[in-house]
Design a protein that fits this description.
Radius of gyration: 18 Å
Largest sheet: 7 strands, parallel
Helix content: 25-40%
Structural class: alpha/beta
Number of strands: 7
Mean pLDDT: 94
Oligomer: single chain
Low-confidence stretches: none
Shape: globular
Order of helices and strands: EHEHEHEHEHHEHHEH
Length: 286
């Protein structure tokens, strides 16, 4: 998907933007000349994961955007509020919020420590609610405000709870924020939507969890970045309360070649479907 310039000058507040999907979305918007607030915890290099908020800021500015790197734990109300205030002081407001930060532990109930349960709830559900709430006073002043959560459609089939109830509850909490806030702020013109990948998306963090072979049947983070770009470029009053799937968005936007998003294009028809999706023929449209 080509950049259109629609995000030039827009202020994006992106959680977890130091690497992976969050950084890919930031770079996509930056190519339009957007202002990016990198709200993430990684200030020092991780021993196994590349990238910090500062290296992400350098990449953003290299491709044409402006960046504000902020050390923030989305569980901490004071840190979030201070980051929002810093963003407004530097850029003059907030137009778009991307709730990308997330914790994952796909463990069954007996193997899920309460410390891990609390981490997922506090980052995924509470963090999404807190960041959205803190940014809303400024979104209400924007001419095309969007909140986009990286969370799945609400699928109540027991199979999506049986093996990792704690994680499902935490991710669905993010999706329930979409369900509630989209209706709450519909009349004020704030779009609140969710975006979820059709297939597994290969990032450094995923590789650390599943190993390098996961890339064989996965897509690149750019598939989510391009889909997010298409959503937040739309008129907020016309698109709210949706649970978008990345390749549906891209096909609707006229993207013809989805093979380019595959880590290994020769495996385009063998890609692994992501969780929470029931579509048994996810690539029939390709």
């Amino acid at each position: 998907m080509k950049n259109t310039g629609k995000l030039r000058g827009k202020i994006l507040f992106i959680t977890g933007a130091s690497r992976g999907i969050g950084k890919a979305i930031a770079l996509k918007a930056a190519r339009d000349g957007a202002n990016i607030v990198i709200a993430a915890k990684t200030a020092e290099p991780h021993p196994k994961l590349p990238g910090t908020i500062y290296t992400a800021a350098e990449e953003i500015e290299r491709v044409g955007g402006r960046a504000l790197a902020c050390i923030v734990d989305v569980r901490d109300e004071k840190q979030v509020q201070q980051t929002v205030e810093a963003a407004v002081a530097k850029f003059g407001g907030i137009d778009i919020v991307i709730n990308n930060a997330s914790a994952i532990s796909m463990t069954p109930t007996l193997d899920t420590e309460m410390k891990r349960y609390d981490l997922m709830q506090n980052i995924n559900t509470r963090g999404t609610f807190l960041v959205s709430k803190s940014c809303l006073p400024y979104l209400l002043k924007s001419d095309n405000p969007h909140i986009l959560n990286q969370s799945p459609p609400l699928n109540m089939k027991p199979q999506w709870f049986a093996n990792h109830a704690a994680y499902t509850i935490a991710k669905y909490g993010m999706s329930m924020c979409v369900l509630g806030m989209s209706e709450e702020f519909r009349d004020q013109g704030i779009a609140v939507n969710a975006l979820w990948p059709r297939t597994t998306v290969h990032t450094a963090a995923v590789e650390m969890l599943s190993g390098p072979d996961g890339a064989l049947y996965s897509r690149k983070p750019e598939v989510m970045a391009d889909a997010a770009y298409a959503i937040i470029s739309r008129d907020a009053r016309d698109y709210t309360g949706h649970f978008f799937i990345d390749d549906d968005v891209l096909l609707d936007a006229g993207v013809k070649d989805l093979a380019k998003y595959a880590c290994y294009p020769e495996n385009i028809h063998k890609l692994a479907t992501d969780i929470f999706l029931d579509d048994t023929e996810p690539f029939a449209k390709l």
